[in-house]
Amino acid sequence: MKKLMILTSLILAFGVLAGCNSEKTEGDGTSKPVELLNVSYDPTRELYQEFNEAFVKHWKEESGQDVSIQQSHGGSGKQGRAVIDGLEADVVTLALAYDIDAIYEASNLLAEDWQKRLPENSTPYTSTIVFLVKKDNPKDIKDWDDLIKKDVSVITPNPKTSGGARWNYLAAWAYAEKKFDSDETKVKDFMKKLYQNVEVLDSGARGATTTFVERGIGDVLIAWENEAYLTLEEFGDDKYEIVNPSISILAEPPVAVVDKVAEKKGTKEVAEAYLEYLYSDAGQEIAAKNFYRPRDEKILAKYEDQFANIDMVTVDDTFGGWKKAQETHFNDGGTFDEIYQPQ
Amino acid sequence: MTEGKQKKKRTIPGFGLTMGFTLLYLSIIVLIPLSMVFLNTFSMGFQDFWATITEPRVVASYKLSFLSALTAAFVNAVFGVLIAWVLTRYEFPGKRIIDGLVDLPFALPTAVAGITLTTLYSPNGWIGQFFNFKIAFTPTGIIIALIFIGLPFVVRMVQPVLENIEKGMEEASASLGANRMQTFIKIIFPELIPAILTGFALSFARALGEYGSVVFIAGNMPFKTEISPLIIMTKLEQYDYEGATAVAAVMLIITFIILFTINILQWWTGKRYSGK
């Protein structure tokens, strides 16, 4: 009996090893099955599930090759660090350019000008920042101004730990800058009042949504547009509604092939095709269905009643790019820390 | 945990071999990873290091982390003994189940514990609604989460000791005219002290490094409810590895001092009461 057990386990072990070996790809152009790892951030889970299925079909028709795609999700910064520390991602699809810049700076796994390689700043889909309020808007919240009223409680995640929260912060800042004509003291005062109304700083965007929806804390949630629509879908629009502020920010979650990893694994061709497919009609449709704003004008027009027309600023024009925005606002000693300095 | 009690001639050979193995094993598992923390810190220069660890926000987080961990460990030391007492001294239906429940906080992923506790104690939660002050998103909430995750340590440390106390000792003390209280204070409690201290130390150390369950219930407000592990995470989020390890190094040093003190206490009480 014991001998039999040992024999079986040996056979199994060899079987697994052999299995691992047979999956090794031998460069591009072969029709051997290939595996991609897409390292992404939290709210894209549903989007990429659907997109991966479509791409697998498309690639089989295109090249006859079987491709399987592994997904990894988590906080954008944490995911970036995992890639730096050696997680072998063929492609990264993160919440902000800053996290992919960090991969270039820390490990040189891709080129410095990675963001120029694909159209539209390497962001095939965009999103923006909106408000989620309780049905019928009892506190009558229409714009950023209403968030600093004394009796309004705001929920937004912590910009120190959440990519989404940084977009929220910058959107509010852009509004204040326009309102006070770039008077820095007044802008900071506005931000201070806003964050004084924040009761809980969750560490991630999903956590903030949970605090607002499940625990019923706060009057307004500042959220990703796609996250807000998902909440409506999940909890019904008889409980919550979306308010579009007068100004928001164009959130651009970029995508990139991690060159060194893809070259090593021999997956470069399929990895590039994978990202390009995001720009195709099929890819853009899937993005729109998952409440991300498609870049393609035609498809955006098709979904226009879903995406309100909001006046949006961009990080590059208003804040001088992500690197600068991160240094000015979110690194230790930046404006976000300033807001919380005890007087 | 009660080493150094017996100063007899060693009867079993192989001290050199086992000691060598112990040192090697501890080095690989504990010392090398920990020394990486300090190596990382040394690369930043003393001034930066000092500036990082004396920042008001970081100092506030140290205070919160250490105080809440100590409070939670203390509460666990008191109630853990109570639970251990009930589990060892009485027979009642469902005892096995209750005994198994004690270990649950170990088995539960910390994030699940955090979300569950927050749901219970938030202002509109099942328990939170009966209080006219906030529990979740305040230091009280943090302490509750830490009590939850540290409970098994004390119970599991004290239980075997209680089971092994000889009935004869208590009978002797009773026959010499001591009442139940005196018997507990003079006979039973001294026997338990080393185990309680160990449980306290383990519960405290575990509470200090706890991140997963606390971030959900803390509210993470700067200067009010930011724990040190969260500060470390925010530094990592800025790709500031050195700053993160600096904060971690300070936590390690303070923790080591506290644990070392507890160990000395243990050794001292063990010597004093065992009369060996």
List the helices and strands and how they pair.
The complex is a heterodimer of chains A (343) and B (276).
Chain A: H1 2-22, E1 34-40, H2 45-63, E2 67-72, H3 76-84, E3 91-93, H4 97-107, H5 119-122, E4 125-126, E5 129-134, E6 154-155, H6 163-179, H7 184-196, H8 205-213, E7 220-224, H9 225-235, E8 240-243, E9 247-249, E10 255-257, H10 259-265, H11 268-277, H12 281-289, E11 293-294, H13 297-302, E12 311-313, H14 315-319, H15 322-330, H16 335-339
Parallel strand pairs in A: 1-2, 1-3, 6-7, 9-12
Antiparallel strand pairs in A: 3-10, 4-11, 5-7, 5-8
Chain B: H1 15-42, H2 46-53, H3 56-89, H4 95-101, H5 104-107, H6 110-121, H7 139-164, H8 167-175, H9 180-209, H10 214-218, H11 228-237, H12 241-274
Helix pairs in contact in B: 1-12, 2-12, 3-7, 3-9, 6-7, 7-9, 8-9, 9-12, 11-12
What structural keywords apply?
heterodimer, A: 343 residues, alpha/beta, four-stranded mixed β-sheet, 12 strands, globular, B: 276 residues, mainly alpha, 12 helices, 75% helix, disordered N terminus
Summary of the model, kept short:
The complex is a heterodimer of chains A (343) and B (276). Chain A has 343 residues and is an alpha/beta fold. In chain A, 48% of the residues lie in helices and 13% in strands.
